[in-house]
Amino acid sequence: MSDILLSAAATAACLPYPALADELAASLTDSAVTVPPRLVQPLPGGASLFVMPANDATVAMTKLITFTPANAGTGRPTIQGDVVVFDIATGTRRLVLDGPTVTAHRTAAVSLLAAQRLAPNTRGPLLVLGAGVQGRAHVEAFVAGLGVREVWICSRSPASAEALAAHVRTLGAQARVVDNAAAALPDCPLVVTATPASGVVLDARPREDAFIAAVGAFTPSMVELGPAMCRDLMACGTVVVDTRDAEHEAGDLLQAGVDITALPSLAEIVRESRPRPAGPVLFKSCGWGGWDLAAARLAMLRVCAEA
To answer: Which residue spans traverse the membrane (predicted)?
Structure first.
């Protein structure tokens, strides 16, 4: 068991962001990838159990995680669980990855892939709303994958913002903590919203060359971006969803009355090699088992290479 059960640190080591973004792109063009709808089981107290299976021709995996919003601010993680990876040919369980680490890395790598394909301006500064696990992962991904050298951080917790700023500096980038995200938009072409999505945190017009990755809201009741901002980006820019599942999960867009069925998905952008759009871009990410499968594939490759 010790050979296949990877700690959070060992899981992270298997999933460097640039390589994971490449694996995500490869999985989107792999016809063998199968991803059934995820099961979301409501739990008492407002928590949820997520069951997310997927497979390709050689690897099968299931992510089992709990999402417990009540843990916020308690020192306990809001997301806990595992990703179990199997070899299809033998049925053997090959790896058990740390679920929260996979979630953080694959979510940030999806945003990185979207930015690589869609962002009009990848130089930064990067504005990050939310200084938790996802905020940290996105900073690491954009520094490693885009070469961002300046990060602005806005968080309702000054201590968390300062801690993330200190981490940014260890990555070789400059960091600044700001109090007003809307006021920072004119200076930041790259924006990530990675908050608990309990209410609108941004409702302002971005730069004409802005790329916004909204990742905090992944249920119909959650929201980070204001309705006016979503509708404005629909009118004057481009809105892309991570997968078709966003049609019933993207709270920001659903609450703004956006026709999500008419929006392109990241898979279509990658498969069709669509040109980089003009004007501001909103990338709405809700999560998908296929992203976890890509992480499992990369982890398998790296573990086998080291064996």
So the answer is: none
For β-strands 198-202 and 223-225, DSSP reports them as parallel
CA distance 216 to 155: 13
pLDDT tens digits for range 201-210 = 999 999 999 9
**Amino acid letter, 141:** A
CATH architecture of the region 8-102+290-306: 2-Layer Sandwich (3.30)
Task: Return d(Cα 287, Cα 307) in angstroms, integer.
Answer: 31
CA distance 142 to 119: 12
Q: What's phi and psi for 68, nearest 5 deg?
A: -125, 90
Q: Nearest to residue 239, comparing CAs of 248, 54, 250, 249? A: 250
Which residue type is seen at 22? D
Q: Phi, psi at residue 192, to the nearest 5°? A: -130, 125
CATH 3.40.50.720 fits 105-288, yes or no: yes
What are 173-200's pLDDT values in tens digits?
Answer: 999 999 999 999 999 999 999 998 889 9
